[in-house]
Design a protein that fits this description.
Blueprint lengths: L3 H31 L5 H14 L4 E11 L2 E12 L3 E6 L6 H14 L3 E6 L9 E5 L1
Length: about 140
């Protein structure tokens, strides 16, 4: 029995897990220093600084076209795309609504990615504001 495909799959999953762990570590560092209560744009800028310091490749405000039946409807913007693999959506809200999970899942489908992180910085403990979503 040939397990070469499974080995490739595990490697890709390992890479995705490593990237999400790095992103979460950077987000925790930002939250530890800034705390809750600021604007999303402030957290995004601080997170980009952490990515730079940790030599993590990322792109901010990535434009993705939205299509329906091969017709372009418009564009949406990803807050962050890390290592060209993980979509990171940032929030600074009192409660994470389930609509934000649906938003990230839609972004994953339209961008052709498998994993996303939804991070709400408006929490006393950041770990309570992190959702990992997989397609």
């Amino acid at each position: 029995m040939n397990n070469s495909h499974k080995g490739t799959e595990d490697t890709e999953l390992d890479i995705l897990n490593k990237v999400t762990e790095q992103v979460i570590g950077c987000a925790i560092e930002v939250h530890r220093n800034l705390g809750p209560g600021l604007l999303e744009s402030i957290y995004e800028s601080a997170l980009c600084i952490e990515f730079d310091l940790n030599k993590i490749n990322y792109k901010c405000q990535v434009i993705i076209p939205v299509q329906y039946k091969n017709r372009k409807l418009g564009d949406f913007r990803l807050d962050l795309l890390v290592e060209d693999k993980v979509i990171v959506e940032l929030k600074a809200v009192s409660n994470l609504s389930t609509i934000y999970n649906a938003q990230v899942l839609s972004y994953l489908r339209m961008a052709g990615k498998r994993i996303g992180l939804l991070i709400n910085f408006n929490e006393a403990l950041l770990k309570n504001g992190i959702e990992r979503l997989i397609l």
